[in-house]
Specification:
single chain; 153 residues; alpha/beta; Glutaredoxin; 5-stranded mixed sheet; two-stranded antiparallel sheet; 29% helix
Length: 153
């Protein structure tokens, strides 16, 4: 399954790195959401990409956007990763049912058992306005994501 630009983004409820339930619907009406799927906590590319996001949180906030990262790692692993990297935004666990949200967004990689790198910009009404999907070993361009967020705000 995949979600197309212009469609309603699939809702979800996942545990944050702090064990709290986070739903997409919570942000409806109040904030744009940048949903960032990562394959593996502690991998070099994931660490680098989320570090860039961490260092750019003011730019996201300036456009009224909340960043939510998603991995299939257990929330305890996401907590250790977040603490080690100083990540203050929610890092959500798509651990069980394994990859259910990643599949709903069309980014789950069956061979790897983890999501490919997908980024989805969702507006305040819950509509998907922009997306990019790349392979597990590829990097996304943060400037492109920030430009997409600026267009939505």
């Amino acid at each position: 399954m995949t979600v197309d630009v212009g469609a309603v983004a699939p809702d979800f409820s996942l545990k944050s790195q702090h064990g709290e339930d986070v739903t997409l619907a919570f942000y409806r009406g109040s904030s744009n959401v940048v949903l960032v799927f990562i394959p593996f906590a502690f991998s070099n590319t994931c660490t680098s990409e989320l570090g860039e996001i961490r260092d750019s949180l003011d730019a996201f906030a300036g456009h009224g956007a909340q960043v939510l990262a998603v991995s299939c790692d257990h929330f305890f692993s996401n907590r250790a990763f977040s603490d080690a990297e100083g990540l203050t935004f929610p890092v959500l666990s798509d651990f069980w049912p394994h990859g259910e949200v990643s599949r709903a967004y069309g980014t789950f990689n069956e061979d790897a058992g983890a999501p490919n790198r997908g980024t989805y910009v969702i507006d305040r009404e819950g509509i998907l306005r922009w997306k990019v999907q790349v392979g597990i070993g590829d990097r996304r361009n943060l400037a492109e994501t920030l430009a997409a967020v600026a267009e939505v705000s």
